[in-house]
Each structure stands twice: as structure tokens, then as C-alpha cells.
Fold this protein.
Amino acid sequence: MLRRLGTGAREVRSADDLRAVDGLVIPGGESTTFCRLMQDFGLYEPLRAFLRTGAPAWGTCAGMIVLARQASGLEFPTLQVLDIEVDRNAYGRQVDSFEADLDVPALGPAPFPGVFIRAPVVASVGPAVEVLASVRDERGGRQTPVAVQQGVFLATSFHPELTDDTRFHAYFLRLVQSAGRTSSPK
């Protein structure tokens, strides 16, 4: 999606790789595996140091968990840069995956297609966290945040990359640029 928007993208697998990026996207996947690998390869502190420089980061699904201050049922620490608490896989198993049209005023009036796959539920948000989008939680009947932002940190409990809609990716690129990073179409 980032390349489709004319921006370069590369994988980050080591601390040295962080020197070549202006922002970081932590994708969906398995949060336990991500955190275990960050520990095994000594990436916790380099990632935290990179984020302390003001580098924007966006976590989608498992990436949201990795950025969160606290995640239930995770045996490893998270990066703890986003003041949210999440419940892992709280929307259910793979068969409980769903799609929902999301009202995201920051992206304009058209609904955004949210694709939720074993998604985390945001259990609480800190005072500096802005809720960008919510869905009605059928279990409790309340609105549950599914897209949040705290300064240069963005997180979605769904997978924008699984749609044809580039608005969330464009939003993240604007965060990178507004943070004074050099990321621009390459």
C-alpha cells in the first residue's frame, strides 16, 4: 500500500535497519511471535530508542498489541509507547472474523472498510489518546475503539492493508511528514 502511494517501504529486521526508515509500520500477525523475536534479537531497546526520537509508528492488529502499554495474556513485554490496554484476540477466533464500515472523520465522510481478523479489543485508553473510530461491541453493547492515535503513534485493530482503500496509509504518511521526517514519495 505504501509503494502504491509512491513511498518506499522496507523490512526492519535489525537495529541497523532502523537508520534507513522515517516511520515504522508493525503489521498484523502473531503478537507473541513479534515480542519473542524482539527479545531474542535484542530489538526492544533499539525500537524504543527509535520511537523516542519522534519517529511515527503504526500498529495494525498484532502491531496494535506490540505498541500498547499493556496487553492481556501476553507473556512478553510490549513496546509500551501507546497509552492503551488491549485484550488479545478478544473478538474471537478466526471463524469470528468480520468486516464493518467504519466512520472515521479524520479520513473524510466516506466509511472505511474495516477487516477484523482475531482482532484485539481496546479495553481502555489513556487521556492523551484520541479515538479515531469505534464499533459497537456486540458482547457488551458499548462502542469500542478500533482506531486510535496518540501524537505520532497510530493503531488499528483491523487490517487496512487488506482493502483497496489507501486512506489510512496516506494518513500515516502525513503523520510521518508532519513529524519532520523525510519520508516522501520515492
Notes: The first strand starts at residue 24 and ends at 26.
